[in-house]
Amino acid sequence: MKFGVVQFPGSNCDHDTFHVLSEVMKRPTVWLWHKDHDLRGVDCVVLPGGFSYGDYLRSGAIARFSPLMQEVKAFARRGGRVLGICNGFQILLELGLLPGAMLRNKDLKFLCQHVHVRIENDKTDFTRAGRKGQVLRIPIAHFDGNYYAPPRVLREIERRRQVVFRYCDANGRVTDAANVNGSLNAIAGIRNEAGNVLGLMPHPERASERILGSLDGRTVFASLIASLERARPARRAAAPRRKARHDR
Amino acid sequence: MIDKSLLERHNLTEDEYRLIVELIGKEPNLTELGIFSVMWSEHCGYKSSRVHLKRLPTEGPRVVQGPGENAGVLDIGGGQVVVFKIESHNHPSYIEPYQGAATGVGGILRDIFTMGARPVAVMDSLRFGPPDDAKNRSVMEGVVSGISGYGNAFGVPTVGGEIYFDPCYNLNPLVNVFCLGLADKDKVFYAKAEGAGNKVLYVGAKTGRDGIHGATMASAEFGKDTEHKRPNVQVGDPFKEKLLLEACLEVMDRGLIVGIQDMGAAGLTCSTTEMAAKGGMGVVIDLDKVPQRESGMTPYEILLSESQERMLLVAEPGRVAEVQAVFAKWDLDAPVIGEVVEGGRARMSFKGEVVVDIPVDAVVNLCPAYDRPIAAPAPPPPAPPLEDLPLPADLGEAFLRVLSSPTVADKEWVFRQYDHMVQVNTALLPGADAALLRIKGSKRALAMTLDGNGLYTRLDPRTGARIAVAEACRNLACVGARPIGVTNCLNFGNPEKPEVMGQFEQAVTGISEACRIFGIPVTGGNVSFYNDTEGLSIHPTPVLGVVGLMEDIGMAATPGFKAAGDAVVLVGESFAELGGTEYLRTVHGLEAGAPPAMDLETEKRHQEFVIEAIEAGLVRSAHDLSEGGLAVALAECAFHSPRRLGCEVALDGPLRADALLFGESQSRVLLSCRKKDAARLLALAASRGVPARAVGRVGGADLAVASDGREVLRVPVETAYRAWKDALPAYFKVRT
């Protein structure tokens, strides 16, 4: 199996995500360039955090028009796994692969801090290594993470169990105080109806090494790897794991 | 054409003008005069400070590049170097807080990546007037948003810094930005134009009229139309800067260029002449080829513009196409605007006419240095003798007031607006004694901190400056790191006032003495004079940025208490030193007295001991004592503890209760250790000649201090925590 990390101009968590996938999770990972039409045979496309195209106009609004994203859209429609983190989530919303939109945080400030999120659905390709109700401690870093969807859409995504993560306190209670950016229904991450596309505001790549204070972000990557490797055993056999390198 | 008033508007004296004429062998035209005015300005030429800065130690075994380049470079082993510097952006941040601060960040980032290093950390040292004033709050909100807006989008973590509040910064806030980058030792680039025939390329944003030198003349001299005069503060575009970073690092990594310089202060003028002077060459520039954002710009405006996100590259002719291809990949143009030539002259043409023809050496290296008159700084207003100072009836209440003073209070409201985690290296979150970054692929870590207590320096410039260096190093020691180098940002008033020069001279002496004792070279920095507004001078405020190295990040210490039952150990001695303290200011309304004494040898011994104890695995928490003294340090250890553990502490000795709780005696550190390790820890201290005492234990829900068997403080941790935590956000609550 192979991960592809997309680089837009202005992406700035691209190297972090690449580092965690290749050095921490030790899976083959390649770069995908926004001007290309080539997905380089990857099994999972990761849209990293940052400020694609400066986030001018609106977060993620310009990135959706890049040549590569037309391929990503087709890939997702074919059932390919797509993970959007932070700005990546915003791009998926703009692209229409996920429902809803992002507003500015309720306090109108950029927020960078550790938050707690609760796994709402552990039957997804992105959470199967965790369990329902489990509380993860993962940092956020965004200005536009206040999730919004019209009431009808919101009801639908709740009914279809598309909400994968919700902001909560350390004990798993969903409270106003824990919902730091003011998201509707405290939504921190959602999947699409088919279940192959996930967007989330917290940064799992910032919580995947002990030295950074939390390992909880690995749940997302480990789940993805497990579901992909189960889905494609032949390919995995053909591509042996890379030799372990020094990992801090 | 050039008369007295024109010179005045260019901030040049008649003597300086005569020197220019002598050096270039002709009367300068207006454009040439403009070039000299910016290059010989205090900011670029260090006219008033140079004779003093020479006294700073700048050498050491790790020094790859000392002062004189865009940033200092230190060897950290493993084939890697750190590239770091601090810069001020004070005046622009008052005029336009958001853009002033944002472009301050942008400028220092370019200083770092122009040397081939990827910026990995930013810290800010900020000074504002008290936040109970609406104007001060709006300046502070703007500055914080500006730093956040630029740094976050660029993708560099803002990992720490410090903020002080004092009315002396009401009309003159300080915004000092520090940046550190990492590079391979063999890939460091310099601002040198070498090789006749090599091409000069312009990359990045187009040149506009923003940021043209403050001495810009009235429009009558420039154009026939009365062009609207734009504000002098530049506007930042972090997205463009990010593209510039990636493209520049790529051409450097591939060895496609021979030299590179950013266009910061004095823009195109500074970058072209400096590069030529450093390479011992001349340069020919065609100003018509400079990408321009607006029409009708004069050569004067093009050369003096300080538009942001621009760089100048020098490449061999055969490499130009490759360089341009890399920039095209990042959607940036890279036109050739000139050529390196023999002869040491800068010749610039505009619409077919030569508009500048001057020797670069005169512009860059022959700016006069002044040994300005010095007067002894006024002695500090005396603090009343302790016996005349009323002891607060309720020390608990006094404690809460100190904790909630904006200078001491929690700064999370600020630092959570900064992305402090991007690049996944941040091992300690802001609020710890020092920032700590892992170096990927190794066990090693970089520590860094900024320090500078302006009130101490106001009361005694030499001691205050010594304390600034010592405290910065102590912050590193509390994490477990050894200092390896320092950069400084010296914020002072008007150097033409002998008293201000007196403060400056003494502060430089203090920094120099301390750096020699700690064995750390000063690799560069920045001097910001003329921090006077409407007759009010700021406190002399030297800010020190110290960088340290740690061999094993796994041993790093943090300030928070770890477990109930652990022993609390106080390193260092406490004296009746209340001069210049936060307590005296907050509770008694006095900025007075002599600051605490600083014995550098003692300080160094104590720090060595702390590092040794941390490396030996004897320490579970470490935190230095600074503003607010012992009481605040104990509280912070509790606040940083995951379960907010309290402590019970008892001391004996003759100190009056307020001096014991809030005195700011130097060279002190609070450690906690497992009970079973206490004896070993104290024995180690004794063997190193360091006074250390077990003063209590961690645990309980209170912060309790007894003196000579009598309880002088008992406050629930939660009460103290709320006072500390809520103070700053309360000023910024939306008022309805």
Q: How would you characterize this protein structure?
A:
The complex is a heterodimer of chains A (about 250) and B (about 725). With about 250 residues, chain A is α/β, with parallel strands linked by helices. Chain A is about 25% helix and about 25% strand. Chain A contains six helices and eleven strands. In chain A, the strands form two sheets. Chain A has a nine-stranded mixed sheet with strand order 2-1-3-4-11-10-9-6-7, sandwiched between helices. A two-stranded antiparallel ribbon of chain A has the order 5-8. By secondary structure, chain B is of the alpha+beta class. Chain B contains 24 helices and 28 strands. Chain B has a seven-stranded mixed sheet, with helices on both faces. Chain B has a seven-stranded mixed sheet with strand order 23-25-22-26-24-27-28, sandwiched between helices. A six-stranded mixed sheet of chain B has the order 1-2-3-6-4-5. The longest helix of chain B has 21 residues, at about 135-155. The chains are: A alpha/beta (about 250), B alpha+beta (about 725). The interface of A and B includes residues 12, 51, 56, 141 and 211 of A.
User: Main sheet of chain B?
Assistant: 7 strands, mixed
**Stretches with pLDDT under 50, minimum 5 residues of chain B:** 214-230
What separation lies between the terminal Cα atoms of chain A? 24 Å
How many H/I helical runs of chain B?
A: 24
Major sheet details of chain A: 9 strands, mixed
Walk across the major sheet of chain A and give the strand order: 2-1-3-4-11-10-9-6-7
Helical coverage of chain A, percent range: 10-25%
Order of strands in the sheet with most strands of chain B: 8-10-7-11-9-12-13
CATH topology of chain A: Rossmann fold
How many helices of chain A? The count is: 6
Structural class of chain A: alpha/beta
The value of Rg of chain B in angstroms is 26 Å
Order of helices and strands of chain A: EHEEHEHEEEEHEEEHH
- Principal-axes geometry of chain A comes out as globular
- The helix content of chain B is 25-40%
